[in-house]
């Protein structure tokens, strides 16, 4: 195959490599090139079904174009579209007006983000997290701060939880869990390979896996025992990749902590009381706090 730079867009690759594609692969490539907006919103299976070809043909086409698979080509399509279409986001006006408009848009979309949750699956996930011997929260990339916040809030509410930051340490820790434990995996795309490896390690150890993700169809959903799909506050997969918002997940996880703590009854209330005592003991005012001065500094 001819040398293709990493910066080459899918459209460039299709044009440059089309002569080396088989008939089915060429059909897939031309469909992607003709309707990139449609392709970027499709899974590999959905694209295959729409073309009447096997999923393996889509994956093989991706690899012929220089990508590891469909997730990588999908991201490249989103990047191609972002670079080729002028940004028209937000109303014309001041930055403050745009800020207010964006907040209002998110607020309107948030109730819809819970539309894919089912009562039975949600209740089972809450019960598992509440009663587990250990809870390990894992995430990588832009989802990592959400998992860390979730673990800290659970711990503050009397439901101790762990968050491991290093990706390899996540896999090691997950492999040492047991069937009495729960792993909570947070991934907007549901395709983060580092997170998937940790989930796989947990499953092999017999651990119950709860996934928090944005898309109903993803490798993470396939691996999870309970998949809590919280739709993105953006309108599409492409928009989610470009702006990488985790607003819906942040709001959901914040509310989920309250539900779990309430299920713990008096223990949860006692933990909250302890937290408030610690917070109060560490608050200061300008009269009582004396900042550290550098040597030789005088006022």
Helix-strand layout with pairing:
Blueprint: H1 10-17, H2 23-34, H3 36-40, H4 44-51, H5 55-64, H6 70-84, H7 95-109, H8 119-131, E1 135-138, H9 144-156, E2 162-163, H10 167-175, E3 182-187, H11 193-204, E4 208-213, H12 219-223, E5 226-229, H13 237-243, H14 247-263, H15 266-281
Parallel strand pairs: 1-2, 1-3, 3-4, 4-5
Helix pairs in contact: 2-5, 4-5, 6-13, 8-14, 9-14, 10-11
> What is the CATH topology assignment of the largest domain?
Rossmann fold
Average pLDDT metric: 86
First and last CA, distance: 70 Å
Rg over alpha carbons: 23 Å
Order of helices and strands: HHHHHHHHEHEHEHEHEHHH
CATH architecture identity of the largest domain: 3-Layer(aba) Sandwich
Q: Name the CATH class of the largest domain.
A: Alpha Beta
Count up the domains.
2
How much helix is in the residues? 55-70%
Could you tell me the number of beta strands?
Answer: 5
Give me the secondary-structure category.
alpha/beta
Low-confidence stretches: none
Protein name: RpiR family transcriptional regulator
Keywords: DNA-binding, Transcription, Transcription regulation
GO molecular function, one term: DNA-binding transcription factor activity
InterPro entries: Homeodomain-like_sf, HTH_RpiR, RpiR-like, RpiR-like_SIS, SIS_dom, SIS_dom_sf, WH-like_DNA-bd_sf
């Amino acid at each position: 195959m001819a040398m293709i730079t990493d910066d080459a867009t899918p459209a460039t690759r299709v044009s440059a490599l089309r002569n080396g594609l088989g008939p089915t692969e060429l059909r897939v490539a031309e469909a992607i090139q003709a309707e990139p907006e449609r392709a970027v919103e499709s899974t590999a299976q959905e694209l295959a079904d729409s073309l009447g070809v096997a999923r393996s043909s889509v994956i093989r086409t991706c690899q012929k174009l220089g990508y590891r698979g469909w997730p990588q080509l999908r991201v490249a399509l989103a990047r191609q579209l972002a670079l080729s279409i002028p940004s028209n986001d937000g109303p014309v006006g001041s930055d403050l007006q745009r800020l207010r408009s964006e907040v209002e848009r998110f607020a309107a979309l948030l109730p819809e983000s819970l539309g894919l949750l089912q009562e039975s699956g949600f209740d089972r996930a809450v019960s598992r997290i509440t009663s587990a011997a250990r809870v390990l929260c894992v995430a990588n990339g832009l989802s990592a701060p959400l998992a860390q916040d979730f673990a800290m809030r659970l711990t503050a509410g009397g439901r101790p939880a762990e968050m491991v930051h290093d990706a390899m340490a996540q896999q090691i820790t997950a492999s040492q869990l047991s069937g009495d434990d729960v792993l909570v995996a947070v991934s907007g795309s549901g395709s983060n390979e580092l997170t998937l490896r940790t989930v796989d390690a947990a499953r092999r150890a017999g651990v119950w896996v709860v996934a928090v993700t944005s898309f109903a169809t993803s490798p993470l959903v396939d691996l999870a025992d309970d998949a809590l799909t919280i739709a993105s506050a953006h309108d599409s997969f492409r928009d989610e990749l470009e702006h990488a918002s985790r607003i819906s997940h942040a709001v959901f996880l914040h509310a989920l902590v309250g539900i779990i703590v309430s299920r713990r009854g008096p223990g949860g209330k006692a933990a909250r009381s302890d937290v408030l005592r610690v917070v109060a003991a560490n608050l200061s005012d300008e009269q009582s706090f004396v900042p550290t001065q550098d040597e030789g500094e005088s006022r």
